[in-house]
Sequence to fold (251 residues):
Amino acid sequence: MNSLDSEAVREALLTETDLFAEIYRDCDPSLPVPSCPGWTMADLLAHVGGDHHWTAALVRRRSTVEIDDATVDMRPPTDQRAAAEWLRASARRVVAVVDAAGPDVPVWTPFEVLRPARWWIRRRLHEGTGHRVDALLALDREVVMAPEIAADGLSELLDLIAIGSRWFAEPLADGNTLTLIATDRAATWSVAGHGDAIAWTGTPAPASVTVAGTAVDLYLLALRRISADDARVAISGDAKVLLTWLDRTAF
Fold:
């Protein structure tokens, strides 16, 4: 299975945010983050926690349109340890507000369609997870992540690409296909291109290019946190299809 259930997503948002907060509490806030050019660790924390607070405000208002950042207090405390606690609390606020508003209430998303409020919990999970990876890389530490969270992150990314044609221009040309195979769990992602759109399934299929690796390494590749020539992933077929995909699916 490639996706977490809703309760697991909620728990993962809290767990991943706590891990990021622990990293930040003991780091140098001014440390540059190479995978986010121009950002420091303090910027990374402010981005993730600020967007958690922004999301909570959006859902609390049950807004069906984008809300202005200026109407939300998104600033972390200046004290480092207080900022780490602020980050932890921001994730809990998202979950609490979704529960209070109702997980099925329709709210605005950046992808041109309203989605149930619970959609944002999963989005915030994987936004935060990706940036926890950035923090670990900045500190030259090993990326450790539960494979089920990585697998769900990959599924969520494919879901976003499937509904976000204005954001991702023709990631797979018509007739091209991409298959990702997790070597550490029973998970496959088979992706086909249809003009500017894609469709994906969890069923293995022959593909223009196939990539095999652990769920975490496939997720890191999809986020462009490791490169296609990294020894942790094995590529068979037309590597140019993969490189085009990676180039055209960057957030």
Remarks:
- The helical segments are 6-25, 41-60, 80-101, 119-138, 147-163, 215-222, 239-248.
- The domain at 6-144 is CATH 1.20.120.450 (Four Helix Bundle (Hemerythrin (Met), subunit A)).
- The chain has a mean pLDDT of 95.
